């Protein structure tokens, strides 16, 4: 029986482990967005954790680096070149695992759907990983991974599967973002009252929630999800796992279902999940470009969209502010990545209209 | 006879004056861009001064704020509401002067060409300035300003013209960017060998050159200009003022000619002016979005374009590195602003092709 629990201690260990391999990204503020997020009776001071500035352009490098370093430390007698890792992914996790493998001297295989953008396949190969293409179904991806694992083991070589999110080492790595954000907000004399993180497979949200509650059990932790891919919202409220069926959202990083490990961690450590529409996501994203002069991907703007437009969220903060007897609340928001297709940006912004 | 000299002392005074009214913007680095800028025998370490994060999205607020505060301090017996300022501009200077006027409690008039984007006219009005429209010629703009000045003076009211760049208070304000950048690079143990600033009217380049040479007379100061608007390049090399005729460049902030005050300051303090093509400007801009995850306007990318693609520049740095007996040079680059039309961004990036 594998232990699927993740503690704040695991996340602190991950932070020590990955230090020097990943960036400690800055936390930025924007008074214009604070004004736009203000409510009649509660002001919000927003603190943005900029993992769009992270290596490979997204937070995924944190979990990937922690997973590989954990693997290496479990066999300190072997050299990194004796290790191989494998995953299947069409997005940021593939690039992150390939980059981390190259940096740490480990071999890396990635099974990618044949309809992945060639720029993404080239990037993964550019980091020295071996790419195997498969037909674009989850079954084919898993079959591809299992075939390579069997082949390697048949020839006496060890290889370790690193899942994109449903893995305690990956979750602990992603949680380091929240540790840093809480320290950075506290150093600005603004300890966080609320933390908002996007939720797709739940690796980031579960890790950040464990970290945040571990540092301050009183913090209110919110998952932010596109209404068009609201499996986490429905699972959370039904208190049982409901998979994602035909998710429709431009936030391509958030189309996956929760996992067996991430779902119980979210149930235990998250206070609410709020959803936002596609137009709200693009409006929030456009404001980040216009007002903060930052490039973020659609998935990264979902947290800000909740703070600006989420009606359930606005109701919650009224209750929270009244309970805490505060007129202003400090809200941490995760900008998870900045890997956006520049060729489609104008088309994307058209969705927002003139706001 | 008016004194048209600007000293590093004037720029230090401007820095003290505008402190608290404008942002001290961060200086960022990017190892991927350092690698792309490296030459066979000379490495470059790039330090980007991010005035795209400045208030109103561009450096122009520095000069406008210094000009108004200088005006107020010359009549300490009067209240700010007794002062009026006026300018003509279709771009960042109009918004900057309007914003600074509102912040300092001064009245502001802006003469804007009737073909200015309505979003820009609305923004200027949004900062409380009075907008007068005119036909889109320089003559009509100047006539519009003079008519308002005459009218105000006829009714016994004082009003001061604040030019967009050819003004010692404006130049001193823009120079504060270079003071900050040199301090920030030095605090990273990387004193600058080279400073690159874009050049249009020359307010920023002249101010930054005076500041840089005042702090370190050995620094090499470079003006970066679009080849399609190369009046500064031609004037500098001919050692006489040659106006801009029908400039053609997407770098809309750099279409103006040098001024009577900025040109002599540039001749005295700048070491070279290098030009780059439109494709080079867009390629550099695209790299900033892709690799640094920052939103910059085309004018702001011209300095990086010189560092990446300028053939005369590459020749110069070989000589400079050899003279200094250094293998790596520290290069400061000004990102002047981030006010770009998001609706046209994809079309713009198409110019760059796949790089």
UniProtKB/TrEMBL annotation, chains A, B:
InterPro entries: Ser/Thr_deHydtase_PyrdxlP-BS, TrpB-like_PALP, TrpB-like_PALP_sf. Transmembrane segments: none annotated. GO terms for molecular function: ATP binding; D-serine ammonia-lyase activity; L-serine ammonia-lyase activity; magnesium ion binding; pyridoxal phosphate binding; serine racemase activity; threonine racemase activity. Keywords: Lyase, Magnesium, Pyridoxal phosphate. CDD domains: Thr-dehyd. Residues 21-316 form the Tryptophan synthase beta chain-like PALP domain. Its cofactor is Ca(2+); pyridoxal 5'-phosphate; Mg(2+); Mn(2+). One of its GO terms (biological process) is D-serine biosynthetic process. The keyword Ion transport does not apply. Belongs to the serine/threonine dehydratase family. PANTHER family: SERINE / THREONINE RACEMASE FAMILY MEMBER (PTHR43050), SERINE RACEMASE (PTHR43050:SF1). This is Tryptophan synthase beta subunit-like PLP-dependent enzyme. The lineage of its organism: Eukaryota, Fungi, Dikarya, Basidiomycota, Agaricomycotina.
């Amino acid at each position: 029986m594998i232990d699927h629990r993740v503690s704040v201690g695991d996340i602190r260990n991950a932070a020590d482990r990955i230090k020097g391999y990943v960036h400690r990204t800055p936390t930025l503020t924007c008074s214009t967005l604070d004004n736009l997020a203000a409510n009649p009776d509660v002001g919000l001071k927003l603190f943005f954790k900029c993992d769009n500035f992270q290596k490979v352009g997204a937070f995924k490098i944190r979990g990937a680096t922690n997973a590989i370093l954990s693997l290496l430390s479990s066999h300190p007698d072997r050299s990194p070149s004796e290790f191989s890792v494998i995953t299947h992914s069409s997005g940021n996790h593939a690039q992150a695992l390939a980059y981390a493998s190259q940096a740490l001297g480990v071999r890396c295989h990635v099974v990618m759907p044949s309809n992945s953008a060639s720029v993404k396949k080239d990037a993964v190969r550019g980091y020295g990983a071996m790419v195997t293409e498969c037909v674009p179904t989850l079954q084919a991806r898993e079959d591809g991974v299992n075939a390579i694992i069997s082949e390697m083991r048949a020839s006496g070589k060890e290889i370790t599967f690193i899942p994109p999110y449903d893995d305690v080492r990956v979750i602990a790595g992603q949680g380091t973002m929240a540790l840093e954000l809480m320290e950075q907000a506290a150093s600005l004399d603004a300890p966080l009252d609320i933390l908002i993180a996007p939720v797709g497979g739940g690796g980031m949200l579960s890790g950040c929630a464990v970290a945040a509650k571990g540092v301050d059990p009183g913090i209110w932790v919110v998952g932010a999800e596109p209404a068009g891919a609201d499996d986490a919202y429905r699972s959370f409220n039904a208190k049982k796992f409901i998979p994602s069926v035909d998710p429709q959202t431009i936030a391509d990083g958030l189309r996956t279902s929760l996992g067996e490990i991430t779902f119980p961690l979210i149930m235990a450590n998250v206070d609410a999940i709020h959803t936002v529409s596609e137009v709200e996501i693009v409006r929030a994203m456009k404001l980040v470009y216009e007002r903060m002069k930052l490039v973020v991907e659609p998935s990264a703007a979902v947290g800000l969209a909740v703070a600006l437009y989420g009606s359930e969220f606005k109701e919650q903060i009224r209750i929270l502010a009244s309970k805490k007897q505060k007129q202003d609340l400090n809200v941490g928001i995760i900008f998870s990545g900045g890997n956006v297709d520049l060729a489609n940006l104008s088309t994307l912004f058209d969705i927002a209209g003139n706001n």
